[in-house]
Design brief:
Length: about 120
């Protein structure tokens, strides 16, 4: 499986920027005090979904999981969260960062083809 350290760093950065995108987008959804709540709760939602629903023995993670999830479901979850982060950047008017984020995301998954194949075999 793709264990190249650079690919692991890219994956971490994609997760980090995804969480930041959720926070910034949430903050900009209101002019009232609820913006602080959204800026906290939306990235927390990302982190909880990311951390709780995982494939048992996934070598790209710790191998542990709270809620055992099939590989296909995990892959869809990742694509939804990363896709939402990309859309949020576009929605905030950050077109160039969104395009860069999306391109890096596509490149990361292209280089992680072996992980995708492994995920799709996991029930």
């Amino acid at each position: 499986m793709s264990k190249h350290p650079l690919n692991s760093v890219v994956r971490f950065l994609l997760e980090f920027v995804g969480i930041l995108s959720f926070a910034k987008w949430g903050y900009h959804q209101s002019e009232t005090g609820i913006r602080i709540l959204l800026a906290i709760l939306l990235p927390l939602l990302f982190a909880v979904l990311w951390g709780v629903f995982a494939v048992r023995d996934d070598p790209s993670r710790s191998g542990k999981t709270v809620v055992p999830t099939s590989g296909a479901v995990r892959l869809v979850l990742e694509l939804i969260l990363f896709g939402a982060a990309t859309w949020m950047l576009f929605d905030l008017g950050h077109s160039l960062p969104a395009l860069i984020y999306g391109a890096v995301l596509i490149l990361h998954y292209a280089l992680s083809w072996d992980r995708i194949a492994w995920l799709l075999k996991q029930k």
